[in-house]
Amino acid sequence: MAYMPTPVLRACVAVFGFALASMMFASIAEAKSTPADMRVVDSSGEVLADQFQYTSSDGVKVKTDRRADCFGPNTGGSGDKADVPGSTALAQLVDGGRTDRDLRPLSISDNFDFGLALCGIGDAVSPQTGFFYLKVDHVDSQVGGDQTAVEKGSSILWYLVEDFNDPVPDELALSTSGEAKSGEELTVKVVSYGPDGKKVAAEGAEVTGADAPTDAKGKTTVTVEDLSELTATREGSIPSNEVVVCGLKAAKCRPGYAETIGGTGGDDKIAAGKDAETILAGGGDDTIKGDGSTAPDVVKCGGGDDKVTGYGKSEKVTKFAGCEKVS
Question: Containing domain of residue 261, as a range?
């Protein structure tokens, strides 16, 4: 969220967290859903989630936590279920917790007039000196997570700040240039986004498997392995997204290696991409469409009456689970 003029306001605007041992949520069964990127990172740099997550446009419900007191004494929730507006950053977080255990329980308070306050996400719990920082498309959100809109293709980032007196860190983003086979070198680039979304080359970032930190242009090279999981880190910065590179032919790569796609509890229409993805559809009667490429996916349909189409050549190596109809 945005930098606020006082610690209390700053923490309140950045409202989101978890500490409750039992979280309950539900969404509208017939909900349409909005797909967008979602990352959640704790204060130590550990990534709790880095996935493409669908979220209900009709809203969800979440059980509030009486122990969500990161905003001070007697600020915990009522323990009742609260409505979370659809296609918002908080709703996306709730939907992500359906299939990703690291995102639950959520610790949320409904004690405030300005909206729902987040104190914890899974094991990442905000102290009373901290808050969950929220960015949309690399820019500070100026409102709470239950008011921050998620649009198709948006990039949502949650980061736990331990001390609201500290300046918020910049955000790293990693990308690759071209392709490389196992044993070959691949150029990667790292950029840094400030709170206002301004992008600059990130010099001095360490990239997994690289022999040297990034140069003044934010570039370095890595030697590709059969499967290389690349992340950029730099002291004082939020770690980058993960990019997974397979140095083998697509059909020989580990199924679902490239990205995770999470569904909601409602009826989703999920479109697979060209890379090898792990699709966790969740509940509802879902329609999942492959793109016909040779990259093998992992498709876990979950509850409901689910239909899978369009896998073509990759169907022999794609792994399906709980899917009622595959064609």
Answer: 251-326
142-184 tens-digit pLDDT: 999 999 999 999 999 999 999 999 999 999 999 998 899 999 9
Q: Which of 142, 51, 133, 34 is nearest to 86 (CA)?
A: 34
Q: Examine residue 1 and state whether it is found in any structural domain, yes or no.
A: no
* 19-39 exposure pattern, b = at least 16 Cβ within 10 A, e = fewer: bbeebebebbeebbbbbbbbb
Mean of pLDDT over the chain: 90
* 187/266 Cα distance (integer angstroms): 41
State the DSSP code for 325. E
CA dihedral 95, 100, 104, 110 (to 10 degrees): -10
Final residue before a domain boundary, out of 226, 244, 262? 244
* DSSP-assigned beta bridge partners for residue 122: none
Backbone angles phi, psi at 260, to 5 degrees: -110, 135
HSE-CB at 313 with a 13 A cutoff on CA atoms is 10
> SS3 for 77?
coil
Structural domains of the chain, count: 3
Can you say whether residue 66 is alpha, beta or left, with left for phi > 0 and alpha for psi between -120 and 50 degrees? Answer: alpha
Tokens of 105: 């329980």
Collect the ranges in the chain with pLDDT lower than 50. 1-31
For residue range 79-133, list pLDDT tens digits in order.
999 999 999 999 999 999 999 999 999 999 999 998 999 999 999 999 999 999 9
